[in-house]
Amino acid sequence: MATAEGSPFPWRGGELWFALAAPVHDDPEVRHGVARIHHFHRIGGRFEHLGATFPMDFTPGSREWSGCAVTDGQDVTLYFTATGARGEVAPSFLQRIFAATAQLQDSVEAFSDWSEPVEVVRPDGVVYMDEHEATGRIGEIKAFRDPGFCRTSTGVDCLLFTASSAEGRDSHNGVIGCAVRDGEGMFRIQAPLVEAVGTNNELERPHLIEHAGRCYLFWSTQAFAFAPGIDAPTGLYGAVADDLFGPWRLLNGHGLVLANPETEPFQCYSWWVLPDLSVGGFVDYWGIKDALAREKPEGRRHFGGTFAPFLQLQLDGDVATLADGYA
């Protein structure tokens, strides 16, 4: 949970964090079909699980996917992805972006009752694909998800999201979408900030920070989301611009900010850069190098499913590196 400018908001001697969670299954990949948003108390370097954030069957989807939480110290607005449709028999990949609000409480309950979820932005079918409900393999489905809120230093409220281009209907047509809040409080669709038509299918969990007078845009993607013939690793990628609307330049000349080591290509994912340049992430599969091993029972036992140790970035203009001691 953060302020509108992106800094973690202090709560009960620590911070409130949100993450997807799912019941334990023999196959960890089942989590994508049953995930829900949970909240955690980060205090003393540890994460204490507090429970599911929304009541069961509260949101319009059959499960919830990623988003972000913003607070002014009194109210909390949670932007999230409602995936599938409530009550559906077979999980679909319909993705819609909603927001709900509650009062922040100084108790372990954390929130008052949530307001009814409201759909805050929709794909238009012209710039952003509105056909993403079909079943399919993870990494190949089309997207409209992962809302990330940011208020720029110039006072612009924007909502970034993972989307698929309606103009470039390639098998790999990922974009980072943007909507800006107007004078009536509504988010209005803008052109994508970054597009990867012909290059990559999923630019996931986009988020923006401002540092040293520049805007830095970050996202995560996986090796298998790149088009055939492109040998690029699972990692955190980024771009830099002088303001929200660009033009954007890929960090380090190629976009890659950090990647899993070659000996541990699946160990971490879903990175999030905070304004102090610390980087959180998610432990995926550790201790295996072969992608096929994840599909075997012994490989599935290597699933982490928890917060990863934090890293620290350094930013210098168009260059992003890990700080000393984090290599």
From TrEMBL:
Signal peptide per UniProt: none
Keywords: Hydrolase
One Pfam family here: Glyco_hydro_68
Keyword Coiled coil belongs to the record: no
Gene3D superfamilies, A to Z: Glycosyl hydrolase domain, family 43
A molecular function GO annotation: hydrolase activity
Family per similarity comment: Belongs to the glycosyl hydrolase 68 family.
Protein name: Glycoside hydrolase 68 family protein
